[in-house]
Amino acid sequence: MALIPCQVLRVAILLSYCSILCNYKAIEMPAHKTYGGSWKFLTFIDLVIQAVFFGICVLTDLSSLLTRGSSNQEQERQLKKLISLRDWMLAVLAFPVGVFVVTVFWSIYIYDREMVYPKLLDNFIPAWLNHGMHTTVLPFILIEMRTSHHQYPSRSCGLAAVCTFAVGYILWVCWVHHVTGIWVYPLLEHIGPGAKITFFGIATVLMNLLYLLGEVLNNYIWDTQRSMEECKERPKSE
């Protein structure tokens, strides 16, 4: 029996994301008042994705609890739709985008923080909030993947959806630059047009690879657990 029920964990994670979002939006930063506001940053978009995803998880848990033992087929159909939405969102958005943000942010930060998170931001964003946006996303999504099995969509549909999101965000970043003359991330100010295209291409490929990683990890976790349960149920040979 789990020390903490997965339903309680999901509520706690959802509340933590709500707190992070509220604290982030309360910060008076110049970048928040320019074109695109917070929505031009992938970190903020990811926080919204994670909050919505865990909100759907909590809603699914509540619906499952309310329909338990019920013979109402319509309620069961609605619950299945909710579960399908939850699984699709983890596969296509929550896992690949969340892991991408954590991996790319800290990789660039370690190399040269001024390219992604200038030291000036320390005056606005406390360290705990920085980690809430760029670190805890990874353990939270891994906890969710470990506590519940998620049905992934077909690989072609999943990869197409991930590509659509990645290309859409890249076009949004380019549009913000077109309107303001300023790139969202300092890194893009220091590289040429060819390098930008390469960078955007690598980012899109990486996000697709993270989708595949999530699919493999999900299958590995639950295939391993299923095998362990079968071993426990198998009668001991005399």
UniProtKB/TrEMBL annotation:
GO molecular function: hydrolase activity
Superkingdom classification of source: Eukaryota
Membrane topology classification: Multi-pass membrane protein
Record's keyword annotation contains ATP-binding: no
One Gene Ontology cellular component annotation held by this UniProt entry: membrane
Pfam families in alphabetical order: Far-17a_AIG1
InterPro entries referenced in this protein's UniProt entry, alphabetically: ADTRP_AIG1 (IPR006838)
Transmembrane in keyword set: yes
Transmembrane segments: 47-67, 88-111, 123-145, 157-185, 197-218
Compartment(s) of residence: Endomembrane system
Catalytic activity: 9-(9Z-hexadecenoyloxy)-octadecanoate + H2O = (9Z)-hexadecenoate + 9-hydroxy-octadecanoate + H(+); 13-(9Z-hexadecenoyloxy)-octadecanoate + H2O = 13-hydroxy-octadecanoate + (9Z)-hexadecenoate + H(+); 13-octadecanoyloxy-octadecanoate + H2O = 13-hydroxy-octadecanoate + octadecanoate + H(+); 12-(9Z-octadecenoyloxy)-octadecanoate + H2O = 12-hydroxyoctadecanoate + (9Z)-octadecenoate + H(+)
Record keywords, A-Z: Membrane, Transmembrane, Transmembrane helix
Coiled-coil annotated spans: none
Family recorded in the similarity comment: Belongs to the AIG1 family.
Protein name per UniProt: Androgen induced 1
Organism expressing this protein natively: Vombatus ursinus (Common wombat)
Gene: AIG1
